[in-house]
Specification:
The protein is built from two helices and four strands. It is an alpha+beta fold.
Amino acid sequence: MPAALLRKTFRELEARFGAVSAERQTILGAWRQGEKTYHDELVRMFVDVPANPEHDQFFQNFKEILKSRFQQLELWVTSHDIRVL
C-alpha cells in the first residue's frame, strides 16, 4: 500500500476531526471473490467521534474516496460504541 496515500488519508482525517490514530503493525488479509483470491496488507486508522448523522455521512462518502484511492473493490468502515472512563 503506497505510504504517500496512507499519509494523505491520515492528514485528511486529522484535519477533519482534530485527531486520528493508526496501527503500525502489518495485518495480512486474503479473501475470495468468485474464483479469484485477493491478498491485502490491511491498515487500521481510528477516529473517535460522537455518533451522529453528519459523521455517518462523512464516512460513507469517504469510504468511496478511499476505495478509489487505494483501488479496492471493497473497504470496511466500522463504527463501535465505546465508553471512556
